[in-house]
Amino acid sequence: MLKISFSWDDGAVEDFKIAELSAKYSIPGMFFIPEKNPERVVINAKQIAELHQSGFEVGAHTQSHVYLTTIPPENVYTELKNGQIYLENITGQAIKHFCLPGGFYNKAILSQAHSMFASVRTADTGNIKYSGKNPALIKPTFHFYDRGVKSLLFNSLKHSPLLFQFVLKHRNKNYFEILKSFIDYLATQNADYQIMIWGHSWEIDQVGLWPKLEAFFSFLHQTYPENLVTYDEFVRKT
Ligand SMILES: [Zn+2]
């Protein structure tokens, strides 16, 4: 079965708008939240608890949103562990999923993260299938942000021939039309494809993508309600 899931990075205050729209259209959502971020304000512990209590998933995004490839390797563990403990104290639950700040990683960082989390999400886009490995490496399918059709072509060429061919054929459509029609296409295929859509609420706000996001949620809610899964279900072996 085709699985579709969403994850949102950084814990910006606009995450509440994502949560509101998600609730309106019954779309599950994972929020990857650091404790702090030098680049922007992060919601506080009380707000994180609120998000979690309203039924959304919460995942680790390090303690201080530092790009892990830029710090001494011996500091990576502390960044990961402190970020995890922070959220576990707030939610009272095990924090099993992790997302790499800025999408930066190397082999050593991945193996450290995999020793602490059931899954690690990157920002490499263009993937449509996971092997169901444990721990999982989640490379998403689409960024919910208009990166242009060229970027779709470039990324799918690296990760998924099926998506590459599809984008090539539909390159006259716009970014979000391709996203929708590709989901329509995969839904007709009798295979366990997985679509992970990730984004930043602050970015959606910055470029005025809220109407696009609402239209997309509405489309999924009407057409593919049974394909929308939580992050935890998405990561679980099909
Ligand atoms: Zn981030």
How are the strands ordered across the major sheet? 3-2-1-8-7
The rough form would be described as globular
For the record, what is the CATH homologous superfamily label? Glycoside hydrolase/deacetylase
> How many distinct beta strands?
8
Measured as a percent range, the helix fraction is 40-55%
What is CATH's topology name? TIM Barrel
Count up the domains: 1
Q: Overall pLDDT, averaged?
A: 95
Largest sheet: 5 strands, parallel
Order of SSEs: EHEHEHEHEEEHHHEHHH
- Tally the helices: what do you get? 10
CATH top level label: Alpha Beta
Strand content: 5-15%
CATH architecture: Alpha-Beta Barrel
**Bound compounds:** zinc ion
Class inferred from helices and paired strands: alpha/beta
Instruction: State the low-pLDDT regions, or none.
Output: none
